[in-house]
Amino acid sequence: MFGAAPAQAADGFRYWSFWQRGGDGGGWTYAVQGPSSARPGDGEVIGFRFAVSEDSDDATRPRGTAGFTAVCADTPAKGGTKRVAVVLDFGTAADAPDHRTPPAPRTKCAQVGEDATAGEALAAVAKPLRYNSAALLCAIAGYPESGCGDKVTTSGKAHAAPKGDGGEASDDGGGGGSGGPSAGLIGGLAAVVLLGAAAVWQARRRRV
Question: How far is residue 181's CA from residue 150's CA, in Å, rounded to a whole number?
Fold first, then answer.
């Protein structure tokens, strides 16, 4: 009765999760505030990871160990602004809606106003962003092309990548800014409202 049992199918959601960490050290921490509320300081790092997760405890961290110094090395400090390193991880083929290889991870340095939110930093470096009617962030840099927080039934883990930091996220040198992840999210719209992945997750759990 208490022997090994076959893997049980579990329900998860395919979505972009939001993470934070210090400038050049420490690990990723699942953000307790959404990107529209969190206000990273100058020299901090924020990350977004697309994956299938059952809940915030199961969420997969962005891969790579790139720190603020490496990401923002070519962006000089400027009065009245702050620099925030943005890491975008589009996940693995196992996470992708069509199971095709997604875009490679990338990094960007956002230079924004001193009081800017994480969402505004994201908007400054990645486009296009896509939202649903409930203002839930569905796509960063146009990825994925369709779907939004879709429910997924899996047997075991849907994502093959480890939860911890994995391979390096690459800096696209600015060329990917137009196709970057979620900068498109907010895509230059000053009034865009970003809901945090944590808040969205809690709302979805209440509806289930």
Answer: 19
Identify whether the C-beta of residue 123 lies closer than 8 Å to the C-beta of residue 183: yes
Tens digits of residue pLDDT in 174-202: 433 333 333 333 333 333 333 344 444 44
Query: Is the Cβ–Cβ distance between 137 and 49 less than 8 Å?
Result: no
Contact by Cβ (8 Å): 112, 29 = no
Q: What backbone phi and psi angles, to 5 degrees, belong to 61?
A: -75, 155
CA separation for the pair 42, 160 (Å, rounded):
33
Q: How many CB atoms lie within 10 A of CB 29?
A: 12
Question: H-helix or E-strand containing 133?
Answer: none
Which residue type, as a one-letter code, is found at position 78? K
Instruction: Give yes or no for a contact between 125 and 110, defined as CB atoms under 8 angstroms apart.
Output: yes
Task: Give the bridge partners for 137, in sequence order.
Answer: 131
The residue type of 124 is A
Burial 187-207 (b: 16+ CB within 10 A, else e): beeeebebbbbbbbbeeeeee
**CA 15, CA 58: separation in Å to the nearest integer?**
12
Give the integer Cα–Cα distance in Å for 8 and 109. 42
Q: What is the pLDDT of residue 169?
A: 61
**Count of H-run helices and E-run strands, the chain:** 4, 9
